[in-house]
Each structure stands twice: as structure tokens, then as C-alpha cells.
Amino acid sequence: MMTADSLLFPSLSLTDVFVHIILTLFSTAFWVYIYRHRSFIFLALAMFFPTVFAFGIHIYHRSFIRFVSFLFLYPQWSTLFWSICSMLLPVIIVVICCLMNYLTGWGTFRQRNQLFSSVHEHNRNLFFGWIRALGEEIGWRSFLLPGLLIHFHPIIAFNISGLVWGLYHVPVMILLSYRSECKVQYPIRTIIVQCLSCWISAILYGWIAIRCQYSMIPPTMMHFIWNQINPSLLGSIYTNTPGLMDGEQWKINGEGLVGCIVHFIVALFIIFQFI
Q1: Which residues of 176-211 are buried (b: 16+ CB within 10 A; e: fewer)?
Q2: Most exposed of 6, 179, 184, 220 (fewest Cβ within 10 Å)?
Q3: How deeply is 65 buried, as exposed, middle or buried, from its count of CB atoms within 10 A (0-12, 13-18, 19+)?
Q4: What's the predicted TM-score (pTM) here?
């Protein structure tokens, strides 16, 4: 197993891991349902839930200080290298998605006078956008993934964390896809491909997390850059708004069908390393 250094990373039982999963998924669904009439900015506060419950579990086990020390004192020099890689990878993947959309005819480039920002309002402030990405990544890649790797083979751990990450997005996708103002033509397929894209892309995030020894910085950088570059170029699959490229969001988005295809190819190269 490719686990974190046991002297630094507080050990997690299988119960801890699945309690974190259940609490995060059910709390997110409950949050979205209770506040379904609130803005997307408010709903997006659920991005902090994975980390809040990770902290809560460590507080319960009296290992919170040790976990925080792991997060802030453990990063190695490799963190810088993988942070740079993590900033470049989303750009490369989104550009490939743009090229595939153009070549297949799924998407067309918009005129300059038609352009407007599709970056979600809660991510437009770069500092708070980074903090929100951090709110997810501590919970997913610095807590859940290393916890899973204690008990499972990496391929299984990647898929469990990916499935959880996909399901975590389903409640807000259901809500937004059926909102009349979003005018989503195919809500069911939109929800399904977005969930699948998270599942598949989690393999790349997980691989980065292993390479940087579960530092919270590189996955956060990748998540943050993704939240900027994907909606800017390909639009928002959440709000059904176009970016530089126009087309059906369930097809052309980096979290849509084309994103699933590109991330699946990347995932295959990663999986072969663990076979």
C-alpha cells in the first residue's frame, strides 16, 4: 500500500473513512435541499464540508494537532514541483477538450463581442476561490484518499474516492439542472456525465496526491486552476452558460462527455502503473 508516513499521518480506521464519506454526502444533500432557494454562492459553501468532517473525526480521536502538523509542516520540496505540474495539467486538459470539440463539431468558438465570464461568482475572487478549493482538497486528498490507501489497493482507493466525489456533486447538479433559469435541455445526462467526470478525474487528483505525499497544496492548485480555466474556455455545466466555446454543456464541458473521454485516457496511463 502507498500510505502516508505513519509517524506523521494519523492512522484512520475503515470506520473513520466511511463515517467521513457518509457524513459528507448526507450533509451536502441535506444542505442543498434545505437551502434550495438560496444562491449558488451560498450553496457552494458545501465545498468546506469534506474538510470540516475530516477535522471533526480527528478532533474526536484527539489527533487534530497531529493532522494539522501533517498538513502544514510535512510538505517536502517535491510539493513545489508537483504544484507547478498541477497548475499546468488543467490548462493542457481543457485545451485538448477544446480541440476535440472543434474537430468533432460539438463546439464552436464564440465571437469576441459575445464573450462574458462563466467563472462562478464564488470563484471570481482568486483568494476565496483558492480557499474553497482547499476546503474540498484537504478532505478528499489529504484525509480520505490516504485513509483509503491504508486499507485498499490504490486502484480501488482511487475509484472509491472518485465515486464519492461524483456523488457529492449530484445534489447541486440535480437542483441547478432543473432550475428554469438554467434552461438545461438534457438534465439527466448532464447530471450523469458530470458525476462520471468527477469519478474519472479523481484518479488524476489521487495520483498527484500520492506523488506529493498527500500535501494539500498541489491538488488544491489543480482544483483552483480548473475552476478558473474550464468555465472560461468551455463554460459552466452547473449554470449552463458558455465560455469561449459554445455548444451543449453536457458534451463540450471539461466536466461533460469530452472531459470524461480525456480524463479516462489519462486515468488509463495512471492505472497501468499500479497493475
Answers
A1: bbeeeebebeebebbbbbbbbbbbbbbbbbbbbbbb
A2: 6
A3: exposed
A4: 0.94
Q: How far apart are CA 199 and CA 238, in angstroms?
A: 16
Q: Which residues contact 84 (CB under 8 A, 6 or more apart)?
A: none
Distance CA 20, CA 55 (A): 10
The set of cell numbers assigned to 271 is: 492505472
The span from the CA of 190 to the CA of 212, in Å, is 33
| Cell numbers for 120 | 462562478
Q: What is the pLDDT of residue 119?
A: 83
HEC states along 204-272?
HHHHHHHHCCCCCHHHHHHHHHHHHHHHHHHCECCCCECCCEEECHHHHCCCCHHHHHHHHHHHHHHHH
CA nearest to 203, candidates 136, 133, 141, 132? 141
CB 251 within 8 A of CB 97: no
pLDDT at 76: 64
Which residue stretches of the chain have pLDDT < 70? 1-8, 74-77, 113-117
Closest CA to 258 of 32, 102, 91, 65: 102
**Digit-coded pLDDT (tens) for 50-106:** 999 999 999 999 999 989 888 887 666 678 899 999 999 999 999 999 999 999 999
